[in-house]
Amino acid sequence: MNQQHLTIAQATLLEPTGLSAEHLNQLMQKLTNVNGSDFADLYFQYSKNESWSLDEGQVKTGSFNIDQGVGLRSIVGEKTAFAYSEDLNLSAILTAADVVSAIGRQGQDVQAKNIWRPQGIKPLYSELDPIASLDDASKVAILEQADRAARDSDPRVKEVMASLSGVYEVVLIVTSDGRQVPDVRPLVRLSVSVIVEQNGKRERGSSGGGGRFGFDYFDSSMIEHYSNEAVRQALVNLEAVDSPAGTMEVVLGNGWPGILLHEAVGHGLEGDFNRKGTSAFSGRIGEKVASELCTIVDDGTIADRRGSLSVDDEGNQTQNTVLIEKGILKGYMQDEHNARLMGMNVTGNGRRESFAHLPMPRMTNTYMHAGEHDPEEIIKSVKKGLYAVNFGGGQVDITSGKFVFSSSEAYLIEDGKITAPVKGATLIGNGPEAMQTISMVGNDMSLDPGVGVCGKDGQSVPVGVGQPTLKMDALTVGGVQL
Amino acid sequence: MSELNLAKAAEFAIDYAKKKGIDQSEVSLHLGTGISIAARQQELETVEKHNDAQFVISLYKDHKTGSASSADMSEQGIRNTVDAAISIATYTGADPCFGLADADRMATQKKDLELYHAWNADEAEMLGIAMRCEQAALESSDLITNSEGASVNSYSGSDVYANSHGFLSQSRASQHSISCSVIGSNGDGMQRDYWYHSSRNAATLDSPEEIGLVAAKRTVALLGSRQIPSCQATVMYDSATAKSLISHLIGAIKGGAIYKKASFMLDKVGQEVVPGFMTIAENPHKLGGFNSAWHDGEGVVTPDYRAIVDGGRLQSYILGSYTARKLGLESTANAGGVRNLSVSNTGQTTEQLLSDMGTGLLVTELIGSGINMVTGDYSRGAAGFWVENGEIQYPVEEITVAGNLIDMYRNIVAIGDDYDNRSNTECGSIVIENMTIAGS
Q1: What is the b/e burial string over B64-82, where b = at least 16 CB atoms within 10 angstroms of the residue's CB?
Q2: CA-based nearest distance B377→chain A, Å
């Protein structure tokens, strides 16, 4: 982070209401003036969000939202007190600070000195405001082009729904251990979905992408790519036969199917669940929890990615954290609170939906390193199974380890060949067991196109996933064909 | 900002839009405060105070629309937000169907639906309730070995909706809840389940001990879960999971899905979509209901009662003014969704349903979202119990239940009288024949 980030953060969050360094110290004193205070922070946030959506060939609706506020948190041992204020005037924030500091008995003064230190953190994305980076007429034109491209690509396209959204966020994190960390975060996303019809039968397909940059990422070829991809997927599904039901060999494509790792492994390795001993992975560091072909990381440091952050929402630099190395469980994803209680290091995974939510350990970009197999070799090795290349959402019960993810494009594999497309089905497994059945890993690692949203405790944050093509020897496929 | 000021802010926004040459506009304002207290392992874990404000304006100019929102309800904040919405409406496309709901449909009879019940418990009292709830769960069985804790939440808010027809409504509402989630283990694995109760009136909440005990009982019952072989079987959704089937049906008949032809329920009005013994109705004026309102999200008067499905036949789609105009129909006063659904039953208790089913799967938990709303193809992760001779045999997990919703609705054979009244949909257990279960 550089001086420019701090200048933007101060100008956006502090100067309009005349908040000074002294005021911040006064607030921090209140938060830490509690017996046994371990940690406290102030999270100032300004967030601007714009979105446009198209159907019936027309951009019909657009919306614009501005939110700002400050979240105040104080931690004593395992206890957390939290309040927030949408009003950035000192008196309003002081009122919120009184609420928070009421958590513990009054104690001694903790002298907090919030001095800006550059800390040498290199920003991973530009500090541009994507919403201001393109005029509204051009944003509308992006959606109109997506519509045209989809309709032009096949006469069976009956409806195109597309949406474009941009977010510009400025944060300033002030912590009781003396850090004052700014970040400026752009985020854009384009989604295209289509309905196709043939002989009275209808199907859907969808595609999209985005990341932490401006709308210029969506150039003509990218827009066409999304539209063609949505149409291709819908047309494949028009031909789909019933999906098989039962436990079988499953090959997952590269990229977005990495949602497997997010559900089967990722959530179960978040620090809070492991501190409390509620995860199927609790207490298993050093144990073999996946096949030796699996090395899985959570990496918040990839430039411009949707799931990346230069610093997390607690002001800590993100990092590339090895979760599983050659099948052995190496570590958890941590925020300040859980790392302190577990005596571990923070990993830059403290994230929150907004100033009005408490931070907790969350994923950034979670992916598996490439293996040695040619993807074709992997398909060839399967006598009878499923090849799934696109997915909708997933979910996990971190305690029992049961996870699901639902395919939206999949094919049968018969005698080593990809044959008929099959309808979407939910795949279900047990995380630590399913990961042991990974028997082949491809050399084609790729990351998803940048559309992931992760929900936990009612809080949504943008994330990324990735993986090479891989084969699981046994996974339950929830089709209808016995 | 007080309730009175919310109304003033609404009028200020509409006046300002008018001055800017806007034909039609509508605004929603919300102010809310809440507290959440969580206890874990019999200690306070978190105290969260909520304090929310939201101002939203949608406006229409020459059949184009734009909307904008902000928490800033100062006069300057409102002006900025209205200006942002006007700027958006400059670039969106014109559609003659856009606009406020018709003026002659505006509600005129304000009704007190008893949605606001203050709860004067302080933090210490709420913490005590959470601790009692968790304690009841922890002490109920040696098999309960860990806890995610218990929490008590209380929220109340004021809302104003106003539009340029001159319609303005103010309301207050509260929502209070107690929940508990515990973990059991029996040596070969852990299971977690939870229970909660929620009400507008804290005095009608189930006791914390009862909620804790149900959470513990549900958790213990899952211990020893196993996969079953793939098979074709009758599936009974318990009352907590059955309501998801009703919500898929409602989602498929919403006007937006219908006019975009993105639904498996196209052209079904007047046809039998579920068996003739089934009626699904909304009750917008239910006192203290989860989604009660005397007008919808556009000011249109809501009916006391409306059958959406009557005797198995679909009566109408779910429409607001825009989707109604798109389809050449009248609004069904459903801007903002359906209000307090009730599903008829076929008279059996849970035990009778199990006994009538004989052999099959009782689903108590669904996971994932494998539903294709265009085709009705349905495939979801599930957990529950295997039933033989009308009795629960053992817990089941790591399976999926699949079918096509069009067929699944037709294959409903019974609905219990064991209503779950904790949400917008009141429904008993639903028994569906001939579903595919994928397992080992």
Answers
A1: bbbbbbbbbbeeebbbbbb
A2: 8
